[in-house]
């Protein structure tokens, strides 16, 4: 690990796959919101409006704009965390351990497949223990992270 890098927890690293899915989901929601804002031709009528008629578009647009901002904020926060996690993994000096971490947390492979792809005589437990030792050691060295 390079000096000055923040330590992370296994839980944070396990979020990488979920973050990718969440970001994609939020982007879909944003597309749906934007599509709902597309103007539709109004129904024109010479009939008088009912008393107390409301401006539905005028009431809906601010709500949609607020929702859009919330979604954009969610995406930005998730992207920031995702970049932090990726930077942490890329900063690991030990190439084999970095490869194991990429297989597990970026490629989202189960530990048994990580062991197979890591090569050598690695087992599910050996690759898992190597990751846990590294994360625990990093957090001990950087307790304020």
Shape: elongated
First-to-last CA distance: 14 Å
* Multimeric organization: single chain
Provide a count of the helices. 5
- The string of secondary-structure elements, in order, is HHHHH
Measured on Cα atoms, how large is the radius of gyration? 24 Å
| Proportion of strand residues | under 5%
What structural class is derived from the secondary structure elements?
mainly alpha
Major sheet: none
User: Unreliable runs, pLDDT <50, ≥5 residues?
Assistant: 1-5
Mean pLDDT: 80
Structural domains: how many: 1
The helicity comes to: 55-70%
DSSP strand count: 0
Question: How would you portray this structure in words?
Answer:
The protein has 145 residues and is an all-alpha fold. It has one domain. 69% of the residues lie in helices and 0% in strands. The protein contains five helices and no strands. It has helices spanning 10-36, 56-90, 95-106, 111-118, 124-141. Helix 1 packs antiparallel against helix 2 (56-90), helix 3 packs antiparallel against helix 4 (111-118) and helix 4 packs across helix 5 (124-141).
What is the compact description of this entry?
By secondary structure, the protein is mainly alpha-helical.
Task: Describe this protein with a few key phrases.
disordered N terminus; 145 residues; single chain; mainly alpha
Please outline the helices and strands:
Elements: H1 10-36, H2 56-90, H3 95-106, H4 111-118, H5 124-141
């Amino acid at each position: 690990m390079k000096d000055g890098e923040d330590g992370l927890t296994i839980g944070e690293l396990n979020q990488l796959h979920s973050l990718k899915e969440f970001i994609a989901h939020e982007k879909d929601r944003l597309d749906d919101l934007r599509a709902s804002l597309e103007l539709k031709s109004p129904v024109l009528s010479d009939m008088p409006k009912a008393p107390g008629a409301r401006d539905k578009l005028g009431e809906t647009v601010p709500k949609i704009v607020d929702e859009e901002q919330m979604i954009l904020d969610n995406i930005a926060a998730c992207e920031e965390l995702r970049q932090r996690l990726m930077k942490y993994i890329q900063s690991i000096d030990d190439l084999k351990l970095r490869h194991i971490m990429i297989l597990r947390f970026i490629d989202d492979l189960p530990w048994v497949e990580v062991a197979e792809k890591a090569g050598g005589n690695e087992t599910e437990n050996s690759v898992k223990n190597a990751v846990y030792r590294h994360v625990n050691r990093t957090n001990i060295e950087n307790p304020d992270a």
